[in-house]
Design goal:
By secondary structure, the protein is of the alpha/beta class. The protein contains eleven helices and twelve strands. The strands form two sheets. It has an eight-stranded mixed sheet with strand order 6-7-8-3-9-10-12-11, with helices on both faces. It has a four-stranded antiparallel sheet with strand order 2-1-4-5, covered by helices on one side. Strand 7, helix 7 and strand 8 form a beta-alpha-beta unit. Helix 4 runs parallel beside helix 6 and helix 5 packs across helix 6. The protein is globular and about 65 Å long. The two termini are 30 Å apart. The N terminus is likely disordered.
Length: 338
Amino acid sequence: MKHNEKIDNAEDIVLDIQDLAIRYVTDDATTYAVNHINLRLKRQGTLGLVGETGAGKTTTVLSILNLIPDPPGVIDSGKILVNGRDVHKLSPKELSEMRGKEVAMIFQDPMTSLNPVMTVGDQIAESIMLHEGLSKQDAYKKAKETLETVGISGERAGDYPHQFSGGMKQRVVIAIALACHPNILIADEPTTALDVTIQAQVLELMKKLKEDYKTSTIMITHDLGIVAEICDEVAVMYAGQIVEQGTLREVFKNTKHPYTEGLFNSLPNMNDRNSKLTPIRGLTPDPTIIYPGCTFAERCPYATERCHTEKPQQKWINENHMVACGRYDEPDFHIERR
């Protein structure tokens, strides 16, 4: 099954990434960050983009907002369609209108995402004025209402970021992202800098807001627990490529790629306190090298000689599950999940 045959109804798709390839070119080397990926986000769906640091997750989502630094970033191929429009063909004015109104992003570190010399109310109101054309007074009133939706008293709109805790800052960042009710919300590791209790609160908040605003969401994370908690679909990214993708149930219950298996097996087993973690051996491949075969072959316990010389093709096992592994359909090949 080809990528463009997976879903027939184009109206169900708010984001369609087709054959995207991105590299960073410097005087020292060329880094191949994203290597011909295809990705779709359904209307009101939540997609978890999972993988180790350096897999290309953030580069992928920055390209949706056309925020790849140029130079050194070069988009070699691909289309990114947001609500049917090609992002890379939009004018600067159209891009500015799209960011925040159609697509909004929650960045990884709330401590550096907020302007320290502006009140949080003014920062939220700024986005509302830009996209909705309200007066400063009306925008500020709506900013206070938006703070209330994320569990912060509107009376605190006049406070500065340093007057908030880490978890409250993250709520403010979410309020800014949601102020104009975007179609697509991108959350880049939104709970990384928070303790476990606050993480749970922020995730509950995001689930509630998703239901209230009918927003489609991309959740970038390396935490499979967060994926299980909040996502409908999962795309596993390794060395700039999507190696496995499907519904949450298919990927979690019917794992097909050895890298996905490695991610699951490196998690602690809560039912067996004596069990040991099984880390994925070796290191991630050098992103400045184009490998002739599978990029995971050096680390894969199932790799054969062919894996080192032939690139695996993406194969749709069924309409809900894709894998890019040269061995997955061999009769004697079985994934061993703990």
